[in-house]
Amino acid sequence: MDLMGMMGKLKETQQKIEDTKKRLDTVLIDEQSADGLLKITLTANRKVKTISIDDSLLEDKEQLEDYLIVTLNKAIERATSVNEQELDAVAKMDMPMIPGMDNLFK
Fold first, then answer.
1. Which region holds residue 83: left if phi is over 0, alpha if psi is between -120 and 50, else beta?
2. Which of 32, 36, 62, 92 is 20 to 30 Å from 73 at the Cα level?
3. Which helix (H) or strand (E) holds 97?
4. Nearest-5° angle of CA 88, CA 90, CA 91?
5. Exposure on the CB side of residue 102, measured as CA atoms within 13 A
6. Which residue from 41, 53, 38, 50 is spatially nearest to 79, judged by alpha carbons?
């Protein structure tokens, strides 16, 4: 087994993962409440970019809080899914299959 070659490959893969994470900052996930009164945009790295709240929600604090929780959770789930798929693809594409190494990037 060529250890130096593998270490080089590992560094290359880590660089690709970093590049992918940077790119995921530019991938936007839009989510909204069922009635469209609350809209949220996240990056695929799960950073909130925008929150748009319809004025009608401002009159009911509890309803607004519920909307935020539900909609943010849905947006975070979608962003996480995109994030994991992208990073898994990079790790799988470049890594030689070494037993036990598949959990390294989780």
1. alpha
2. 92
3. none
4. 65
5. 4
6. 41
CA-to-CA distance for 93 and 97, rounded, in angstroms? 10
Coil vs helix vs strand at 21: helix
Indicate whether 58 pLDDT > 80: yes
pTM of the predicted structure, to 2 decimals? 0.77
Tell me the Ramachandran region of residue 97: left when phi exceeds 0, alpha when psi lies from -120 to 50, beta otherwise. beta
Range of the domain at 34: 3-96
Report how many domains make up the chain.
1
- CATH at residue 50: 3.30.1310.10
- Residue 58's φ and ψ, nearest 5 degrees, are -70, -15
> How much is the pLDDT for 103?
55
In a domain, 81, yes or no: yes
